[in-house]
Design goal:
Layout lengths: L1 E4 L5 E4 L2 E3 L13 H15 L4 E4 L13 E2 L2 E8 L8 H8 L2 E6 L5 H11 L11 H7 L14 E7 L2 E10 L3 E2 L2 E2 L1 E10 L2 H11 L5 E8 L4 H4 L10 E4 L2 E4 L2 H7 L6 E8 L8 E7 L5 E5 L6 E4 H7 L6 H6 L4 E2 L4 H9 L12
Helix pairs in contact: 2-5, 3-4
Bound molecules: coenzyme A (COA).
The site of coenzyme A (COA) has 16 residues, from α1.
Length: 353
């Protein structure tokens, strides 16, 4: 599931195809095997009725040529032990009404984690929720993969007996010069609201014998905003989700829009010819959109990867135009498409899959 922009600022979860790690034996590389695999994956995506395919890239130079756009960004944050967040009182009240409890992660937790995660994909833009089977496989403890750290732990957040979030993490138990120097390494961090997230993070920075909590977040994550400045963080950024629009007219109808538009867009797609050509894209005042083929002269020209980059609001059409990727033929067309695709927040950082 992926948290997609809904009409006029909402978010709704939709099923998408995901591509996990790919590998080609070095004896057979650079002969088109990856190209064939991605082509087959995208055909399968369309045949299964999905409009979007997503992946996380080990190298950024590979997937743009297949029509994927870099759709969200992750910032590495390191919160020192004892960090105090100055969140508004309403959020503090929610956090204080939230109970946290730890467990060692087991495949048996998968259904419980999926229930919270899929609920979050309906409220957090760009959130990718893994399937029950995938969570069960990932939470199985493999001692050889601990690399000197403890088994993975879960911290559940509950409110009035209902799960509202969880963190999946492990500590390294490091010591330096007779002092604790450990790190809490968080891999999944999910909360249905910001109170649940604050409660989890407050508890994580309060664990004994650690000096910091390391987590990947969106650059505009409230955990950063509540600290007043990104200077408080030793933040490095990387690309998170790459998104590929597999079926353009279906994807246009599936997504919601922030502002009305009526544009003729020339879309270049060298991998999926069914998307290639000039489309009339209309979004109405209720944030519902549709796309149909047209023969008219285009208002602007872009690559399918430009739309993928902007589909979750992680990049803007304006910035893509400034960089020269989106070409405007009618004044105002870039502004209109930019306004329609805008989102209230940046997309969430998505856990690996
Ligand atoms: C990356 C990998 C999957 C590529 O497979 P491959 O079969 O050699 O790729 P192809 O021959 O189909 O190449 C397709 C295109 O991608 C390009 N490409 C391949 N690997 C690339 C890389 N590491 N960086 C940039 N471009 C790359 C090729 O030049 C080719 O471009 P072109 O069509 O414009 O000429 C393979 O080299 C591999 O297994 N590497 C190690 C594991 C890895 O990095 N996996 C990737 C992410 S999980």
């Amino acid at each position: 599931m992926l948290g997609l922009p809904g009409p006029l600022g909402g978010v709704r979860a939709v099923a998408v195809e995901g591509l996990t790690q790919v590998g080609v034996h070095p004896d057979h590389s650079r002969r088109g095997v990856l190209r064939a695999m991605v082509g087959s994956h995208l055909e399968w995506t369309r045949a299964s009725g999905r409009t979007l395919a997503v992946l996380k890239a080990s190298e950024p130079g590979i997937y743009g040529r297949f029509g994927y756009g870099m759709a969200s960004v992750a910032a590495l944050t390191s919160f020192p032990a004892g960090t105090k967040w100055t969140a508004p009182q309403g959020i503090v009240d929610l956090a204080e009404a939230t109970h946290t409890a730890m467990a060692t992660a087991e495949p048996e937790h998968a259904e419980r984690l999926y229930a919270v995660w899929s609920a979050c994909a309906n409220v957090h833009l760009g959130m990718v929720a893994r399937s029950v089977e995938d969570i069960a496989r990932t939470t199985r403890d493999v001692p050889e993969l601990r690399v000197g750290k403890e088994p993975r732990r879960l911290m559940f957040a509950t409110r009035e007996g209902v799960d509202v979030g969880f963190a999946w993490f492990r500590r390294d138990g490091a010591w330096s010069a007779g002092r604790p120097a450990g790190t809490v390494d968080v891999t999944w961090f999910v909360g249905v609201d910001q109170g649940a997230r604050l409660a989890l993070m407050r508890r994580l920075v309060d664990l004994d014998l650690v000096t910091s909590v390391v987590n990947w977040v969106a650059p505009d994550d409230p955990l950063v905003t509540w600290l007043g400045s990104p200077r408080a963080l030793d933040a490095r950024t990387t690309d998170s989700v790459w998104l590929r629009i597999a079926d353009l007219p279906a994807a246009v109808a599936e997504r919601g829009y922030a502002a009305p538009c009526d544009l003729r867009i020339e879309v270049r797609d060298h991998v999926i010819p069914a998307n290639d050509g000039v489309w009339r894209v209309v979004a109405d005042a209720t944030g519902i959109g549709r796309a149909e083929r047209t023969d008219g002269a285009p208002d602007l020209t872009l690559d399918i990867a430009d739309l993928g980059a902007c589909w979750l609001g992680g990049q803007t059409i304006g910035a893509r135009a400034e960089a020269g990727f989106v070409v405007e033929h009618r004044p105002g067309a870039v502004l209109a498409l930019d306004a329609a695709l805008r989102t209230l927040t940046l997309p969430a950082q998505a856990a690996d899959f």
